[in-house]
Design goal:
2 domains, 9 helices, Immunoglobulin-like, alpha+beta, 41% helix, five-stranded mixed β-sheet
């Protein structure tokens, strides 16, 4: 990851607006805390003066019109200050919303992000269906360009949150939400689901990779290419195993007989950094462990354990590891 995962290390226009709002609210909260502690200190000092006299009950019962007027004035000041703080906070929040709204531009690229228990489907939309790219658990963005994210959920309420780049936005079943995002600094940032969505909620991460514009265009063009038939005999046997087993009913690989839509698209699987939505690095050893026992690594996920002979497993790992 680039830097640390924090809303206070902004790398996008939306993230900068949220960070500015946070610092302003922190400053106001600090002033309020200091004022409250000062009032508490004054109250304690007055209490000590009362208890120091011979008859504290009689002392406290005495009326002092000047003191009463002074207390009334301080209450009035506190009410006015509280109202002012609320109005300033409201104005700053509106300013943050306006900063995010200004990211909207005509003709911007649109990316569809769908939350699924417990992984992310990402589709790079295009007016030509053949040019649509479907990937999983990684969101690639061009630096300096406004992108509209169409946020959807396939099952329960999820929430997309990339702290360095923008604020949170919920994904609600049956309803599309839209989020404009503009990254400014190339790098790799972490996003995750920020709404409890089931037993593996904490293991629903996504890498957001921000490229220089020309690198992003090259990456997207490469993703549109179908995979080539493997020349290696072991990998070719892995392709046959993939198509013959239940794998092909859930997953799709462009250029093969696998057209499943329930699970992640695996067309360029070997280029991804992780497997199981950020849970493990994408290495042959980790992939083998995942295929052997997906429930042991991520209990409750919807990938069944497929019984494979040792040679079938090795061939399948060889094939998937070559999908670049």
């Amino acid at each position: 990851m680039t830097g640390w995962q924090s809303a206070l290390d902004p790398a996008g226009v939306g993230g900068s607006a949220v960070a500015a709002l946070w610092w302003a609210m922190l400053a106001m909260a600090t002033l309020v805390l200091v004022a409250v502690l000062a009032a508490l200190g004054w109250s304690l000092a007055r209490h000590l003066r009362i208890t120091a006299v011979a008859d504290p009950i009689a002392f406290a019962a005495r009326t002092d019109p000047a003191a009463d007027q002074q207390a009334t004035r301080w209450v009035g000041v506190a009410v006015i200050a509280t109202t002012a703080i609320l109005l300033v906070t409201f104005a700053l929040s509106l300013g943050t919303s306006r900063a995010a709204a200004r990211l909207a531009v005509d003709g911007a690229a649109e990316i569809e992000v769908t939350g699924v228990q417990w992984w992310w489907e990402v589709r790079y939309l295009d007016s030509l269906p053949a040019r649509i790219v479907r990937t999983a658990n990684e969101l690639h963005l061009p630096a300096g360009r406004s992108i509209r994210l169409r946020l959807r959920s396939r099952d329960v309420i999820h929430s997309f949150w990339a702290p360095n780049l923008h604020g949170k936005m919920d994904l609600i079943p049956g309803h599309d939400n839209y989020l404009w995002i503009k990254a400014e600094r190339p790098g790799t940032y972490r996003a995750q689901c920020a709404e409890f969505c089931g037993v593996q909620h904490t293991k629903m991460a996504m890498a957001v990779i921000v490229h220089a514009p020309e690198e992003y265009d090259a990456w997207l063009a490469a993703q549109r290419e179908p995979v080539r038939s493997p020349a290696d005999s072991v990998a070719l046997a892995g392709l046959r195993t993939f198509e013959a087993q239940p794998c092909a009913t859930c997953h799709s690989i462009r250029g093969t007989m696998a057209y499943g839509q329930a699970g992640p698209d695996l067309t360029h699987f070997a280029r991804r950094r992780t497997i199981a939505a950020g849970e493990r690095p994408n290495t042959p050893a980790e992939l083998t462990a995942w295929l052997l026992n997906p429930q042991g690594i991520k209990p409750g996920n919807h990938m069944p354990k497929v019984p494979l002979a040792a040679d079938e497993l090795n061939a399948l790992v060889a094939y998937l590891s070559g999908l670049r």
